[in-house]
Amino acid sequence: MNGSAADRLSSVLRPVHAGNGFEEALERILRIIRLGLVADGERLPSERELAERLRISRVTLREVLRVLHEQGLVESRRGRYGGTFVHARPAPAPTADAAELRRRVADVDVEDTLRFREVLELGAAELCAARPLPPQAADRLRAALTATRDAAPDDYRRHDTLFHLTLAELSGSPSLAAQYSAVRATVNQLLDCIPLLVRNLEHSQRQHAALAEAVLRGDRDAARAAMREHCAGTAALLRGFLA
């Protein structure tokens, strides 16, 4: 890739945060493709360059490229002039259900929704950790965490929703819980517009476990930090796919 082409990518190919390396790297490369910074048929920077500029491992980068390949957005070519090439062919015609879903979320202010969701989630996490949870409440949180861990991929988002609603309800603020249930419904509409990625689900589950552990030991700072990182990962995926 020549100098001018590399310069075009400098504002996007920035180091990702360690906690959400996969999600943020996927968001950045999706942005490159969506913005046309690398045109259809052109080659992305080498794996070595991408990994160095994003500051992620080659293993993580290859998982990102695999997702993009599965979505039909890139293709790999071997040989002297090989590499990963943008292949942003038009998506197949959506089904009636998918078209209706996109119509319903077309007027959603994604950034406002994500910011409001983060405010409520961080507040709920801190409130839950601010005081010892009664045994019954602690058991309820553990059960919600276990349900997400054991959920089949096609049922994961439902249990993910229930886990977060449990935290909101255990916060002790009925108003917060009501507001969260409303914004979560909008977030789920957005999530239903993007692919279900196994790597992201596994990462999300580790974040859930860290969050529940922080709440149960009463560590407010750790609970907020875990929730902030978790929300940032979801936001990165949504921005990448829905931009």
From TrEMBL:
<dbReference type="InterPro" id="IPR008920">
    <property type="entry name" value="TF_FadR/GntR_C"/>
</dbReference>
<protein>
    <submittedName>
        <fullName>FadR family transcriptional regulator</fullName>
    </submittedName>
</protein>
<feature type="domain" description="HTH gntR-type">
    <location>
        <begin position="19"/>
        <end position="89"/>
    </location>
</feature>
<dbReference type="Pfam" id="PF07729">
    <property type="entry name" value="FCD"/>
</dbReference>
<dbReference type="InterPro" id="IPR000524">
    <property type="entry name" value="Tscrpt_reg_HTH_GntR"/>
</dbReference>
<dbReference type="InterPro" id="IPR036390">
    <property type="entry name" value="WH_DNA-bd_sf"/>
</dbReference>
<dbReference type="InterPro" id="IPR036388">
    <property type="entry name" value="WH-like_DNA-bd_sf"/>
</dbReference>
<keyword id="KW-0804">Transcription</keyword>
<dbReference type="GO" id="GO:0003700">
    <property type="term" value="F:DNA-binding transcription factor activity"/>
</dbReference>
<dbReference type="InterPro" id="IPR011711">
    <property type="entry name" value="GntR_C"/>
</dbReference>
<dbReference type="GO" id="GO:0003677">
    <property type="term" value="F:DNA binding"/>
</dbReference>
<dbReference type="Pfam" id="PF00392">
    <property type="entry name" value="GntR"/>
</dbReference>
<keyword id="KW-0805">Transcription regulation</keyword>
<keyword id="KW-0238">DNA-binding</keyword>
